[in-house]
Amino acid sequence: MHSQMIPEEVRLTVNEHGREFLDIEHAAVRARIALQGGHIIHCVSAGERPLLWMSPADPCRPDTALRGGIPVCWPWFGNERDGPAHGIARTAHWRLRLAEADRTSVRLVLELPAEQISRQLPDEHWAVELEFVLGTSLKVTLTTTNTGSREQILSQALHSYLPVDDIGNARIHGLDGVRYLDKLRKGATSTQSGVIQIDEEVDRVYFDTQADVLLSDGAGCPLSVQRGGAEHHHQPAGRCTLTIRSAGTRN
Question: Which of 1, 3, 25, 61 is the most exposed place for a label (fewest CB within 10 A)?
Answer without folding.
Answer: 3
